[in-house]
Each structure stands twice: as C-alpha cells, then as structure tokens.
User: Fold this.
Amino acid sequence: MADARTLRRESLARWFEAIRAAGRRILAPRARGDTTAFEEVTAPSEVAMDCVQTTLSPKAAVFPRCEELLRYERQGKDLRVTDPPLQPPETVLFGVRPCDAAAMEVLDAVFSADPPDRFFQTRRARTTVIAIACTQADAACFCTSVGLSPGSTLGSDILLTPTDGAGFAADVLTDKGRRIVELCPEAFGPAVAAQERRAVLAQVPVRFELKGLSDRLAALFDREELWVDQSLRCLGCGTCAFVCPVCACFDIQDEGTGRSGARLRCWDSCGFSLFTLHASGHNPRHLQSQRWRQRVMHKFSYAVGRLGRIACVGCGRCSRACPADMNLADHLQALAEAK
Amino acid sequence: MADGFEPRLTAFVCNWCTYAGADLTGTSRIRYAPNVRIIRFPCTGRIDFMLILKAFEQGADGVIVSGCHPGDCHYTAGNYHARRRWMVFRRLLDFVGIDVERVQFAWVSAAEGAKWAQLVNEVTEKIRALGPLEEFRRLPMPGVQPIEVM
Amino acid sequence: MEALRAKARELLESRTVQVVVGHEQGSVPGRPRPVFVRKIEDVDRLVAGEGGTINLAVYLLKPEVQALGRPALVADPAALRTVLQLASENQIRDGALVALALDDGRLTELKDLAAIEAFVAERPAGLPAEDQQRIAEIEAMSREDRWTWWLEQFSRCLKCYACRAACPMCYCPRCVVECNQPQWVPAAAHPRGNLEWHLCRAMHLAGRCVGCGACARACPVGIPLDLLTQVLARQIEADFGVRAGTRAKADYVLASFRTTDKEDFIR
Amino acid sequence: MGCACHGDGNGSANVYRPYLMRIERIIDEAPAIKTFRLVFVHEEEGRSFTFLAGQFGEYGVFGEGESTFCIASSPTRKGYIECTFRQVGRVTTALADRDVGDVISFRGPYGNVFPVEQWRGKNLVFVAGGIALPPLRSVIWNVLDLRQDYGDITIVYGARSVADLVYKHELEEWKARGDVRVLTTVDPGGQTPDWKGEVGFVPAVVEKAAPSARDAVALVCGPPIMIKLTLPVLEKLGFAPDNIYTTLENRMKCGVGKCGRCNVGPYYVCKDGPVFTFAQLADLPPEY
Assistant:
C-alpha cells in the first residue's frame, strides 16, 4: 500500500510552507541549550536534523503534560460542569524517529481501549507523524532489542529515509500521510531503488533477548536483592517516565476555588511514592526498589498481557536523561542473564 | 494608570501590634483607603512567604506585611525571624522579576493608628500607579484561562 | 585511583565500613555514576568522580543505602560541605561515616566531622566564576525581562522533581508538594504551578544549599536552578555572615537571628 | 453513560465527566465515618443508570478532587446509590463537610462484580471487619431482597469497638430476621456494658460460627491482618480459595484502566477487579 517516492532536501522548505499555509502547525526537534524538544517551527532550517534523539519525546502533542478534563462553576446552589474547549490544531510531527512513531501505537492501545479517551483521540486524529529513519544512533539506543529498527515504519504516516543524494526516499504509508504530501506534490519525485536505502541506516546492536523476557522477569519478581541492587542509585524522580514516549500514567488534580476551577490531568510516574500511597498511610510500594521493579515489570512483562506488546520502543531517552545513569538496556541485559 | 483601577491589597498583620494599631485607626475615626483586606496572624513569624505568592495568585495587586517593631514581639523573637525571612524572600522575588515594590513590609505598633492609615494610603497610591498585576493574571488559572501545556 | 581502591579495600576488610559509596564507570564515557561497593572484589570498579552529575551525599539518607550499614563516602569538597550541613541539621551523627576526600587526585581519609570541617575550611568554596557571570547577566536585565526570562525557564519544567531528588538537602520524608491539605504548591506543571514550586524550593534551601549544582545537572530540560539558591546563599552570607556547609554545629539561618540584622526596606 | 451533558457530539463521551449527585441523606455511622444516599440531579441519568454489587465509583467535590469507594447500596434498590467513607484525606474531609442537598460528583460504575447471579441456591458466608462491610453490604441487601433464591446466609462482622460498627441499625434488622445468622463482634476491650454480641477477633468468631462449606461461597473484606488470619480458618472449614471472594483497595484516580495507578501484576484493579477470588490473588504480587 505504501507508495514510494523521493523528496529533495531543498524542497523541504516549500513543503513546510504548503503545510503551514494549509493551517497546520509543524512540531519538530528544536535545540535549546544542550537539550532538544519538539517545538513549533516555521522552516526546515530551524529543525535540529542531526540530533540522534530529542531530550523530550513527541508524546506531548497527543498527551500534554497538563490539560483540563472539565471545568466547573458554582452560582449559588447550582453547579455547572462543562467540557473544556477541545480544539487542538492540526499538527504535523516532523523529524520523529521510528521508535517514537511506534510509541504512538502503544499510546493508542492505552488510550483508545474501552472506554476511549476523547482528549487523546481528538489530538491523535489531528496529528500526522512524519518520521525520519536513523542514520546514526548512540549507546543508549536499543530499538533492535524490542522488535523495532532504525528504519521501521510502525506508527508513521510518512517515513523519510535519508539517501546519500541530497534527499530522502519517502514512503507514504497512510492516507493521512498522502494528504500532507498532496499539499505540495511538486516537492516529490519518483521512487529510488530499495537496496540503496538500507546501506545508510544506523547499526544498533541487539542488547538482550526479547523472546521469553516477560516470563523471565515474572520469575525474577521475588528476587528482592536483585531489584534493590539495581535501584540503589535511583533517586526516585519522574524524569524517566516524563521523557519516555510511551509512559502514559497520569494524575487527576482539581485546581480552583469553591466558585470555579478545573479538573486537570497531569503526567505522573510510578517512580514517585505518592503514586500508590493510600490515605491511610499504607503504601504497597514504599521502597524505591519496588517502584523500579514496577517500571520494568509494567513495561516488559505486564504490558505483554494487556497490550499484546511490550510498552517500550528502545529510544534510550530514560537512560540519557537519568541523573543517576540508570541505563535500561544494561539493566534488562543483566535481568535477562540473571541466574 | 488605567483610570478607575482600584488596586486590591492584601495585608498580613500580626494580632498583637499591627491589627491592634489598625483597630486604633478605626476607633480614632481616621479614614484610609478601603482597598486593603486585612488577614490576622498570631505573629509575623507565622506569615509564610508562600502566602504572599498565594495572595498574588488569588488576585491581589499589592501585599502589605506588618507586625510588631523588633523587641516588641509578644512571642519575643517572631519578628526577628520574620525580618530574616523577608530579607531573603524579597531578594528572591526581585531576582525572578516580581516587582518588590508590590510587597511592602512594615512595623506598626498597637499605638500607631495614624501610621497604619498612612501606610495603607501610600501603598494604595503606589500600586494604583503601578497598575494591576497583569503578569500573574496572564498565568493560566484553572477554569479561567485554558491550561494546556505541551 | 589506586590509593582510593586500596583505602576502600582496607576499610572493607577491617569492617570499619560495610559499604563504600563512590563512582564507577558509567554507560557514557566521561560521566561516572554512583556505585555502592560492598564486596572486596568490586573495589576495582571505583573511579574518580570528575564528570559525575550526582552529589554522592544524597545517598546518606536513603533508606536502602542506610540499610547496607556504615558507609565510607568518596567525597569531593561539595559532598563534604553537604555532610557538614546535614550534621548541623542533626541528620548525621559524628562517626556515622568515614569520608574519603578526593580533591584533584589526592585522597585524604577524614574520620570525623572535625576533620571534615578542617579540610573544608582550607578550601573556601566561592561561587564559580561562570555562575557569577550568569547571575550578573540576569541581574543586568530589567525587571520585566527578568520575569519573562525566568517564566520561560519555569514554563519548561515538567514537575519531574529531579531537582528535589538530586538535592541532598531535600530529605523531607513527605515534601510540601506531596501534602494536599492544603495543596500549598499546585501539583500541575503549568507555569504558575512551576513558578510557585521553584520559589518554594529556593526558599526552603535558603541558608542550607552548599552549592553542589546537582539540581541543575539533574534537570532534564536544563533550567539553571542552582542560580536561584546561589543568589540567596550570596545574599545570606552578605547579610548574616553565614555560609552553609562550613560547620558541623550551626544554627539554621532562618531559625536564628541577630537583633542587629540590617535591612533598608521595612517601613 | 448516555445523557445530554455527557457526550457533546464530537466523538466519544468525556469519560472523566461525572454525574452530578445530590445528597439526600447523611448517616453518621461511626466516628469520622459517614454514609451518603445520593440521587441523580438529572433524573434521566438516574433512570438509565444501572450497576451490580461489587462495583465502585469515584466520588468527588469540585475543587478538591475525587476519592474511590464502592457502591454500598444494593442494585435491587432503584433511584439512589449509597457510599460509606471514612474522613482521612483532602477529598473525604471535603465530602464530610457537605450537607444534605449539596451536589457532589460521581463517576462510575466501574470495575467487575460479585457473581451474585451464579450464586443462586448457594449458601453465603459474609466476613467483614471495620469499614470493609460496605462492599459486602451491597451483596447482602441484594440477596436479602431475593431471599428465596439463596440458601443459608451467615454474616460475621467485627470492629475495634461498638462505636466503630457501621450500619448499626441494619445489623439489628438483619438479626431480627429469622432467615439470616448474624454474629457481630468487637475486639477485646471494645465492648460496652450492654453489648450482647461476641467479644473477640473476627477470625476467632468465624471459627466459632463454623459455617459449612458445602455448596457455599465466602466473601471476606477487611484489614490485611484480619484477612491473613481468616483465610486459614475458612480453608480448614473446607472453603477452596477460588470460592472465597474479596475486593481490593488500591489507590485509584481514573477508574477506567488508563492512569496506571492500580496496576498490580497483570491486572488493573479498576478494570479486572476490584472483586477477586483468593485463587487469583495467590498469583498476584503482594502489591496491594
């Protein structure tokens, strides 16, 4: 179904203009100091094309760090509850890596499961994912260990693979992608031979055996000392969950006065002790080692049963951003090989 | 500043001196700007710095924090602690760009009814000149301004 | 490095300590990470701490690390200042740890707080020139620009609390942001909630921050948080003549006072 | 959840949009424990609302938050729902401050159910401790309203002291009926001079009651220590683990299987629970 084409690098600017002229915002990796994040851009020159991976993932476009679920207003005795205006702009996520594109599929599985989450679905429906295959990777990447690759198309509407000629091989994978291409058809040319592409993709070593990992982890659950050892240096912040393109845990907080206010959804992390603390003071996961175990088990063992796949795309962000260098691939390799 | 702008002030005062001073202002029939809303605390030592931020968040354009003169504190040292806290907090507010002119600290004793009236009048006019605290108003307030942070 | 490993081996063998908290080679070259050496054969994992992002003293109050027994802490001057500040706040007893001071390659064993105090006294920790420069740039801005600049920084905050997790002085069992009666600091990561969190954090560290910079290094979005606490530290030293992390016995600056404290803004 | 103020036309309904419920009655069950009877502000919502015993909801006060309790009333009682809660935190304190006539928010019904239908003709044993009676009370009134469809019913309920017993009037009502065996107990030292019930811990009273396990199902809810000591007693009486039911208490926020809080092992307690058999709990990690 994918219709293969080429896209010359210098016509990117024209394509961007056509996309913006059609009223769509473009979010792309943008450098800010030594961190990069998906921010609105107006031209390809503003895009940090060569960054291996952004510090923050593109999930904020479909699952913002803070959003209103409902608003309330009290006049005297009666109470009015309204849905907040949900008009997210049409968005093109440009320069997403294949692992982040695949992450969108995992987020779909969580939020679109019954009952579907309207906020996510509305944003997701208006988001087009234009991925760029990876020509370089770093020590933290492990997409090949989780069934993905620097050139995988899962979750992308268009996959651009850089070719050594100054341009990209463009695989238009979905109708959504086609609609964006048709905004500026003259920017595209006929397809290029397939084998030429593979040569350019990054080499990412497989770090651990995925098959049977979830059962293996279930068997290691009771090995307390193993989990304590692994998480001694973990400080218990929420960075790994908040930079992760797949982590979808959230908190619901009310903010406002007795008269008016809103019920907000905010990002949350199983790394925090408050995540499972009961009002009675009982906390089923009161130690950081238990929370680290939950993060690994949820993504690599429990998710298999619930979502039919593991909830990790191997982007390596958690390892890069972790202040204590909790390298997920190293830890999983150690767990996979634990006696 | 914008005509007709009536600044809203919040005053955090200690019960033993400034509150009594304000009471004396009333019993002495001294008129002063009605823009201030007085909140009573046992001591300036109890006035948390976050309260000043909360006042701005809830719509105050200016804040007055006042208590017993050093040495007069009913609890002996409450105002000494408060003074150090104010010195540090004021530096922090200034560094992040909050207008420290909008926070006026003072010592008003139970006998200084006139000083209290003069203080409130002057601060009211100063804030009227500075205008409403737009900077805080534009920060997303739940149910008022949409909160969606990417 | 050999001196450190030899000393660690000696301390473990003599059972003077049960764990050596130091750095080991991390997954990224040039960025060592914390390691908790308990077995003699693991001693060779210890490396120097240059390039490390964590202030190792943060682990002294972590339950799982305390459960390992008496620690030897491989400490740079900032970590030593932290130990003194924690001691002055009654979080560490004298003799609770052995400090292995590593300062530009030289190893010094400091058995008690007095030794640490003397060692720190010989290395007065002024604010690094680079930080002074950044503070000067910000202070040169107009008030409105400072507000806009800081608000843009705070609006990028995710409320991941890595700054709090990395800070050795943030050891409250339940932080104010985790209390919701009242919800003093908004839990949501919108600009107002972030502003109030960072101002509250800076004030709670006033007179306690030893300037190790771990908070800024831990922030995933690169907010220069250390400037907030350093500006206050400089102000407190100027006004009250007190600097955090210099003495094992010291009053908390905002819980003590001098009747002669001078200021120029109280009517 | 079909009603005007829920779906607003563009796609699926807002699953976080609560019903508005008016408090019709407040009962002070015990120190800091209250029962609310709630009716739907929008009648048409009330008519189309259905639930089954064991399900729970998120009860909230706007501006304070939401809190998770079971629906304590029986599905056979139409037109209202009831919940019982202890005042411990921010939301429950706000709830406890409400008066009759105030409006609160309710989302639900969530979670799975006690298979009350399949238990027709069986004998039922209810064992509850402290404030854990509400989830079982929903089942008790459900079966008592269809009394002829069920066999022997035994209820063992205990609390720290007489004052801590909830649903005091209903306990008397159940005792007055001839077709239910009710044993209420208080911990040693918790009795009052005119206390006529048992004195002792719940597990001991269950052992004394010694209900037959033949063609019977047991429901056990209470503090972890009570459950830990009651299970061996029931097993000794012949109750198999897959015949002993309970509800799990987890910290929850969304209640619809998305926010990740109540994930214990392979289950999301809000979707796959809260009702579990002890056979299921056996292979769950001890994280609840």
User: Anything to note?
Assistant: The interface with chain D takes residues 180-181, 183 of chain C (CB under 8 Å). The longest helix of chain C spans residues 225-240. DSSP finds ten helices and six strands in chain C.
